[in-house]
UniProtKB/TrEMBL annotation:
It comes from Streptomyces natalensis ATCC 27448. This is Tat pathway signal sequence domain protein. Residues 1-27 form the signal peptide. Keywords: Signal.
């Protein structure tokens, strides 16, 4: 962290910081996710789940964009944005995708896997720090009644975010299951699947 702060104070660009290998944006404590703009139920339940072990096959399911996606899976383009940590500004260009794969039937979910992948120049130009992947479950009226938060990834990754996977669960309601990407506490992408009979 000292290397990042000292370099930023000296006027060195974020690109130069990447070249010297600044790979950590350690958060002293948890960074809360910003849920503004989301319709929340009166008694929304928020659950922290570290996730299940991710296999090489799981990794393949969330590479973007994949024309051979199986089951219910989809990718959403992540729009370009900038964010700052410790005086350094990071720019995320277009070319990255949030991919969400869900396997199950009706309200029964066998597994969910979510990841971020970049293509083209964004593979090397994108730096993701202080990231979290979450699953948000909403009823048919669009009100979120449950949020499952993955771990906060405090290290910086180039062109990707660690894959998040959860296992079996039965939802109490029909509606939708959404994967959401948070970078430094701000929601940056959402990808949803409808849960129907």
């Amino acid at each position: 962290m000292r290397k990042i702060t000292a370099a930023a104070m000296a006027g060195i660009s974020a690109a130069a910081l990447l070249a010297v290998g600044a790979s950590s944006a350690q958060a002293a404590e948890d960074i809360p996710s910003d849920y503004s703009g989301e319709a929340l139920a009166d008694h929304v339940a928020i659950e922290d789940i570290p996730g299940d072990a991710v296999t090489a096959e799981d990794q393949k399911l969330v590479k973007a964009p994949n024309p051979m996606l199986r089951s219910a899976a989809g990718s959403t383009a992540i729009g370009s944005f900038s964010y700052s940590i410790g005086g350094a500004t990071f720019n995320v260009p277009t070319g990255c995708f949030l991919t969400h794969s869900i396997k199950g039937s009706g309200k029964k979910i066998d597994r969910q896997i979510t990841g971020v992948d970049c293509v083209g120049p964004a593979v090397l130009a994108t730096r993701f720090c202080n990231t979290r992947l979450e699953y948000h479950y909403a009823d048919t009226a669009g009100k979120t009644y449950k949020i499952v938060r993955g771990p906060l990834n405090t290290t910086c990754k180039t062109g990707t975010v660690p894959v998040y996977k959860t296992g079996k669960r039965t939802l109490p309601k029909y509606g939708k299951a959404c994967a959401q990407l948070f970078v430094n506490g701000k929601r940056r992408a959402v990808q949803c699947h409808f849960i129907t009979k």
